What does this fold into?
Amino acid sequence: MTTRDDGPARSRRASLGDDERRALRRSAEGLLDTNWVGSSTLPSPTLYPHQWSWDTAFIAIGRSWADQHRAQTELEALFAAQWTTGMVPSIVFDPAVPDDAYFPGPDFWDAERADGHPGGRPTSGITQPPLHARAALEVYDHAADRAAARDFLARLYPKLVAQHAYLATHRDPAGLDLAVIVHPWESGMDNAPIWDDDLDAIVIPPDRLPSYRRRDLVHADPADRPSDAAYDRFVYLAVTYRDAGYDDASVLASSPFVLADPLFNAIWCWSAHALADIAGIVGDDPAPHRRQARRISDGMLTHLWDATARRFAAYDVRAGRHVPKDTVSALLPLLDPDLPADHVAAIVAELNSPHFSGRARPGSTPNVPFLVPTYDLRSADFDPRRYWRGPVWINTDWLVWRGLRQHGSPPVTDRIAASMLRLVQQSGWREYFDPFTGAGYGSHDFSWSAALVLDLLHRPDHPLAPAIGEGQ
Ligand code: 2M8
It folds into this structure.
């Protein structure tokens, strides 16, 4: 089985004229080059001035079409900071950047105190979604210099194996065949409403929160970013892990925040299939990785599928229940190539429902011209502009789009691709976008928005870009 050719070849009218397409590509490539800092690409030159883990994977996928060397370099730079446990840290800090440029910085994390820290560059002490094997495979698939790409895969393969083994051994405390996250920052969707109940329940002892200054508000509108109350809890959780020496066993035993999320595990499953393909390329046995992918797939069906609601949901290990918040994460098991047709149909129905498309009764939620909102449009706390609580993100759009292409590309696939193109044409390379107006929020010059639109533009069957209101 291969998971590599994931889109049916279809002949379609180009979404953009050739000139527009070339201009968008040039602009995206130019942005990535501007954000390049020698061995990695900054997610944003202002808000995120270091190397981030899953950003690196998204960026390498976009770069792979035009700049094999930099794509390889940044993935290898990230894995140079991999911990001896196999954990790939969420942030690799650039020591040349002033400590007050980003909070929490290297002094806060103090990760060198952990047994597993490899020395060298300072890092955070937590991880992020494991998209890297998938990214490495795509770099190889698109490489002009095949021999160099094969050597790159051979160098990275044992590190990817260690990353996946870390998740299977250190991050599955309940034996679910799924990896848990211990901090919202590990989820990638840091401020998603999924975490609210657990965060709200945390009572921070008066002397346990260090005084700190948010640096994100220097670069972004407070209305776009997490609240101070949420930030206090993010910081408090990180402090408790730091004080436990980032020891997984003690963190898992004591943390009030232990969840298995669909996005994280679906990405892990997709990457485990990529790792099997990589094993075949570098002369190792693909079978254990394929088996791991199937275990994750079964784990998602067994523990993350809410049969009553007929959708996937995060599983709160501490509370022993699903989290009843409907976010874009619930759509991402589409990345599992073995997802049964019945579950695919349920996800597509959810995507087309008033919860994500807003095609509802007259007088209720208006249609959304831009897909896919990150949170249920019908929720009372849906917010079209606040970080991960409603806006459209290019990375989650891209993940849903790639997932749908593995399952026959139903019509909504093209609407999502068209949304991505219209958003960046209208508002530029912003971090996230209003699903109703297309207005851009968060950082400007945001790298993964450019990288993933590059990936979209390079795929031959990219879609029509209907005007707002068409194709609803
Ligand atoms: C955001 O997360 C960082 C913390 O890691 C932050 O808010 O400061 C998230 O969107 C995360 O998914 C992303 O990797 C990171 C850098 O783009 O920013």
In short: The two ends are 35 Å apart (CA to CA). Residues 8-14, 464-472 have pLDDT under 50 and may be disordered. The CA atoms of residues 273 and 289 lie 7 Å apart.
